[in-house]
Amino acid sequence: MYTYTEFDRAFLAERNAQFRAQVERRIDGSLTEDEFRPLRLMNGLYLQLHAYMLRVAIPYGTLNPDQMRKLAEVADRWDRGYGHFTTRQNLQYNWPRLRDVPDMLDALAEVGLHAIQSSGNTIRNVTTDHFAGAAADEIADPRPWAELIRQWSTDHPEFQFLGRKFKIAVTGSAHDRAVTRFNDLGLRLVRRGEEIGFEVTIGGGLGRTPMIGKVLRDFLPQADLLPWLEAVLTTFNLAGRRDNKYKARIKILVHEQGLDTLRKQIERHFALIRPAWRGADQTHLARIAADFAPPRFRSAPLDGFHRARDTDPAFRSWTDTNLTRHRHPEHAIVTISLKPHGGTPGDATSGQMRVMADLAERYSHGELRISHQQNVILPHVHRSDLPAIHAVLKRHGLATANAGLISDIIACPGMDYCALATARSIPVAQQIAARFHELGLEHEIGPLQIKISGCINACGHHHVGHIGILGLERAGVETYQVTLGGDSSEEATIGERTGPGFSAEEIVPAIERLIMAWLDLRRNSGETFLQTYRRLGAAPFKAALHSRPQEVRPPAHAA
Amino acid sequence: MQRPFTPKVVTASDLLIGDVIYLAADDSWVRELSRAEVITDEAHAQLRLLHAEGQQDRVVGPYLAEVAIGENGPEPVHFREEFRRCGPSNLRHGKREHAERPAERSCA
Question: Which candidate among A282, A309, A545, B28 keeps its CA 20 to 30 Å from the CA of A456?
Answer without folding.
Answer: A545
